[in-house]
User: Which sequence fits this backbone?
């Protein structure tokens, strides 16, 4: 098994090349809440039993399980002849459970990829933040900012405790500032999904501080974007990371 990461355009090219292949396929789509249980219950005609056994074994591999948990978007299984056995994890959720046999069925994949999404992005590190709204490929709203936070004081004694209290208060002030900016900038939009990036430990306390994130918690992706800095450049580049797909080939 090997895994590859595709950009949106890269996945389009991959699907196009796959559609040009000759041979029958078993195509399976499973929604997030039904993966992998939908696959475990898969049953086809006896002549396709070998396909079913292979698919059930493939979805149990460690890499697929880990990737599916990270993305939480369900899965598309494109299972054909030798060299054409793939599991695809899309950046956005599969919209239905479906099984077809014969010609490769890529309709659900194209439907998910081709939809116009409004996406909220929150990149945060202690001391800096970058938030924005993407409408399709366009960054239509954004804000960056900083906040001073003392570094840890390691001398011990009363001064260490005093600095620790000051640092905690500075962190609380910073979170309140970021929460306010999110409510100001995101308030006029209805995002389909919200992605966090940066220091993953900040996500939970920020959500507790931000009413907007609390009311839209069901839209927050479990994926945390791997970015080193919370700044305008990282924000602009975040959409490319958000829209990546993973393809496992068996």
Assistant:
């Amino acid at each position: 098994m090997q895994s590859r990461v595709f950009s949106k355009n890269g996945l389009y090219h991959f699907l196009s090349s796959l559609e040009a292949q000759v041979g029958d396929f078993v195509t399976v789509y499973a929604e997030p809440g039904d993966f992998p249980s939908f696959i475990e219950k898969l049953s086809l005609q006896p002549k396709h039993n070998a396909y079913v056994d292979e698919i059930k074994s493939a979805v149990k591999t460690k890499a697929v399980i880990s990737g599916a948990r990270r993305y939480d978007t369900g899965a598309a299984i494109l299972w054909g002849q030798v060299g054409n056995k793939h599991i695809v994890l899309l950046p956005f959720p599969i919209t239905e459970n479906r099984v077809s046999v014969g010609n490769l069925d890529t309709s659900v994949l194209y439907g998910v990829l081709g939809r116009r999404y409004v996406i909220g992005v929150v990149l945060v590190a202690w001391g800096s933040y970058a938030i924005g709204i993407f409408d399709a490929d366009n960054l239509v709203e954004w804000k960056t900012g900083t906040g001073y936070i003392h570094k840890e004081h390691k001398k011990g004694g009363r001064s260490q405790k005093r600095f620790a209290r000051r640092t905690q208060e500075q962190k609380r002030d910073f979170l309140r500032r970021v929460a306010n900016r999110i409510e100001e900038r995101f308030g006029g939009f209805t995002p389909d999904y919200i992605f966090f990036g940066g220091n993953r430990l900040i996500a939970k306390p920020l959500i507790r501080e931000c009413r907007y994130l609390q009311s839209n918690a069901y839209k927050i992706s479990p994926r945390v974007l791997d970015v080193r800095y919370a700044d305008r450049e990282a924000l602009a580049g975040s959409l490319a990371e958000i829209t990546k797909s993973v393809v496992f080939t068996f």
In short: The first strand starts at residue 2 and ends at 6. The CA atoms of residues 99 and 121 lie 34 Å apart. The chain has a mean pLDDT of 93. The chain is about 40% helix and 25% strand.
